Amino acid sequence: MINIEYSERFASHPDEVRRYDTKRLREEFLIESLFEENKVRLIYSYYDRFIVGGFVPKDNPIILESINPMKSSYFCERREVGLINIGGTAIITVDGIKYELCFKEALYIGQGAKSIVFESLDLNLPAMLYLNSATAHKTFPSKLIKQSDSIVKELGTQEAANLRKVKQFIVEATCQTCQLQMGITELQSGNVWNTMPPHTHNRRMEVYFYTDLPERNAICHFMGKPDETRHIWLLNNQAVISPQWSIHSAAGTSSYSFIWGMAGENLDFNDMDGLLINDLK
To answer: Does the global pTM surpass 0.85?
Structure first.
């Protein structure tokens, strides 16, 4: 029997969030623990019904199954899935077709896939699979996106401490999807700020998953309305849910990477409402 653990996160009005204390803010938006060997952990968010998950297949294969909030007979009955591996090589079998997913590569799985099984190629170096899932209305073919297939953009400057590489894996230019988008942003050495200057995009929600953070370091994630910002401190391999109305930016005590995943109204990656740094409060 597969060990599946899930929880639900309900949407919050921005006027409510401005009154949250630290404990409540973390309860609503922070995802503290996603990875445990041989266990599936899923967070079902009511922001665009986005699902965040993590699992480490080791002793036995892991089968991705539906959970009660989905009310479906199998996970991808009405959903599409994006996966990014941050561990050892994974073998992912989708309806009998095997994909070998290496470190920091992505796999898109289309709506309608009935059987999804995860294994680690080397049990001494197990895969760490990070999952994002959104509702889907049409079937697109599953697709493996290697690092060489991603679209890479360099943003920021060393002087502003925000020099970073944005690697777009599951985006309109590389992979057909209904609404899901995923990629990795890597802060270059000596740089700490991401998504600065910040922005919002009311047409899409987003989740940031922070990784590659050295031990004894932390990240301060900024969220909230531009004139009512709040912050959450995170450690390595933790994630934070960003509502449509919220900014999403962070500064770390070291350089780091983060996986971003989005779902919502459209697939235009550049559809965002930019903000001036001096206007933040």
So the answer is: yes
